[in-house]
Amino acid sequence: MALKRLTPTIYTADLSSTIGFYVQKLGFNCVDNIPAWGWARVEMDDVEIMISTPNDHIPFERATFTGSFYFYTDNVDTLWEKFKIKAKVCYRLENFEYGMREFAIYDNNGYILQFGEELSAKS
Distance between CA atoms of 11 and 54, rounded to whole angstroms? Predict the structure, then answer.
């Protein structure tokens, strides 16, 4: 048995705005959008995120998540230049002692999106 991949589902009160953020600001493609279900799926390269309005049985007042979504990339500097003007910055591009060059932004719901590249890849 092997796990093949992980596709997070993020909850939102405004499906259309969240799709717009990921597509228009970050450059994802919307590959599925079923408003009647309150569900959509966006993707970029090998990354896929499902977006959903919560079902009636899930208590929901606002988006909450106690962690972050970490995206590994092969050119963090280019993404930083592109995203820093399109989203609220959580922390600026920086080299970290654990070997990553990374930054973080917030999406339109307040979820933290981190983008990182191994420093050894920059050599």
Answer: 6
- H/E run at residue 81: helix 76-83
CA distance 75 to 101: 10
Domains in the chain, start-ordered, CATH in brackets?
7-55 (3.10.180.10), 63-123 (3.10.180.10)
pTM of the full predicted structure?
Answer: 0.91
Report the distance separating Cα 110 and Cα 13, nearest Å. 12
Cβ atoms of 36 and 77 within 8 Å: the answer is no
Which residues are 42's β-sheet partners? 30, 49
Q: Which residue has the tokens 């499902």?
A: 50
Query: Tens of pLDDT along 24-80?
Result: 999 999 999 999 999 999 999 999 999 999 888 878 777 788 899 999 999 999 999
